[in-house]
Specification:
The protein has 115 residues and is mostly helical. It has 3 helices and no strands. The longest helix has 69 residues.
């Protein structure tokens, strides 16, 4: 009877050892995955910092642009409508040239009109 109990206990111990090895392997796998996730998180945090700094620097310009748009009154638009077509074209060209300068784009050469 003692032999049977000893044998059963030995089998149980072997099963426990096998299960412990499986648990250790799974734990190692989980730890590896955790480390990979932490590395990815650190990488993302580092990559996120630069765009956030650029955004912080750009926000004041955005606010100024919004304020400029909000400052346009209906009377300003009506005034533009009353200008001669030729004058309007020149104003539009000046505006687009200014935008090109701001974006450092290539300028189209301008030649004077002959009368």
């Amino acid at each position: 009877m003692v032999e049977i109990k000893t044998e059963a206990t030995t089998k149980l111990l072997k099963n426990l050892e096998i299960e412990n090895k499986k648990a250790d392997a799974k734990s190692a796998e989980v730890n590896k995955t955790t480390e990979e996730c932490l590395q990815q998180r650190n990488t993302v945090e580092a990559e996120k910092a630069q765009p956030m700094e650029e955004l912080k620097a750009a926000l004041p310009f955005l606010e100024k642009a919004k304020a400029a748009v909000d400052s346009i009154r209906q009377a300003d638009i009506a005034e533009l409508k009353t200008l001669r077509k030729e004058a309007t074209k020149d104003i539009i060209k000046i505006i687009f040239d200014t935008v090109q300068l701001l974006f450092m784009g290539e300028m189209v050469p301008v030649s004077p009109k002959t009368v």
